[in-house]
Amino acid sequence: MTGYAYMTASQKRGTIYIGVTNDLGRRMPEHKSGDGSRFTSRYGVQRLVWYEEHFDIRDAIQREKSLKRWPRQWKIELIEKTNPEWFGDSPLTGIFDVRCRSAICQNHCAEELVICRGDLGDGAR
């Protein structure tokens, strides 16, 4: 079964929550409605800023446990590697709302998990 390790944040460089799920499309609305976890509800940690898909849920669980042991700065660096502005994400499309930073871009960035805003259909780049 597929699994996802993910991080949500309250704001750029704000409070970070690390979780694991088998369905991001279901889990993120739970966080936004206050049903996700007491921590995310209490601290307003509802913006999906990073995620990683795993073929096996057990690998996603292991990754979650590993990330929780990381120093905060490492987590920030991991988020900013693919989402420097900490924009929220649509878990149904898997597209972070970030501007392309690739000089050779032709709609798809060379960086993993980042797609140009132009692909979102709003014409912005």
Structure description:
With 125 residues, the chain is α+β, with helices and mostly antiparallel strands. 32% of the residues lie in helices and 20% in strands. The chain contains four helices and five strands, in the order ββααβααββ. The protein has helices at 24-33, 38-43, 57-69, 72-82, and strands at 3-9, 16-21, 47-54, 89-90, 95-96. The strands form two sheets. The chain has a three-stranded antiparallel β-sheet with strand order 2-1-3, with helices on both faces. Strands 4-5 form a two-stranded antiparallel ribbon. Strand 4 (89-90) and strand 5 form a beta hairpin. The termini are far apart.
Count the beta strands. Answer: 5
Helix fraction by DSSP (H/I, runs of at least 4)? 25-40%
Global shape: globular
Strand order of the largest sheet: 2-1-3
